């Protein structure tokens, strides 16, 4: 016999309960759906932020790599400085041993001597050996009279006429070299010759085959962490407001741990720090 009334029609409370149960299920499903939408949206935001941050980090890495890859000019290893040692990957302990050897009157004439004194790994020799230009061995006192006067002259004593003997250096360039030397208060390293306006690298290389800075040990360095703004301002590469910014940062943040920290200031690059290191120490 077919039932003429709908199911649950005999009990009003039962029908109401079933209705509210289905209503609750629908509400829960709707709530779960809305939560999942918000979660997906939040996840997308995090991913986008991370991507932007990663892109910024990657750009910084590229910029740092460019600084590390900047050209290092050949130099006499008897005139190491802190920043040049840092660029070559030489540890502070090795640099201290090299400095002590030079203060004691030692003179490097080949890689083996430098490696033994500084206890340098073969990897540094393989990577940067081509940058080091070793001078001829210094003669013993008993042999000095037998040795002809060396052809190398002191760049800080060279006259315009001396410089013009180098192929490619005429009256204009010789005058610029002398004017730049005067502005610097004397060359501290042959690398500064590459900063002379209009002097091509090839010509500068020829000049350095005839002239080198032979009195660089006579120039004293000042401490980056102790110098006043006035003292820093006397350094050719730090004149103007830059010296004040450097000392103000030191006052607020404490002593500098390396000369490389100067890169935080606009206008100071890794190449410029190599020049600044000729005047500064920690």
Give the CATH architecture of one domain: Orthogonal Bundle
Average pLDDT score = 77
What structural category characterises the helix and strand content? mainly alpha
Q: How many H/I helical runs?
A: 11
How many strands in all?
4
Strand content: under 5%
**What is the assigned CATH homologous superfamily of one domain?**
Photosystem II 12 kDa extrinsic protein
The rough form would be described as elongated
**If strands are numbered along the chain, what order do they take across the biggest sheet?**
1-2
End-to-end CA span: 105 Å
Task: Provide an overview of this structure.
It is a single chain. The protein is an all-alpha fold and 282 residues long. Among the domains are: 72-135; 151-217, Photosystem II 12 kDa extrinsic protein (DNA polymerase, domain 1, Orthogonal Bundle); 222-281, Orthogonal Bundle (DNA polymerase, domain 1), CATH 1.10.150. The protein contains eleven helices and four strands. The protein has helices at 12-68, 82-87, 92-103, 111-118, 122-128, 160-163, 171-184, 201-210, 229-233, 242-253, 270-276, and strands at 153-154, 211-212, 222-223, 280-281. The protein has a two-stranded parallel sheet. It has a two-stranded parallel ribbon with strand order 3-4.
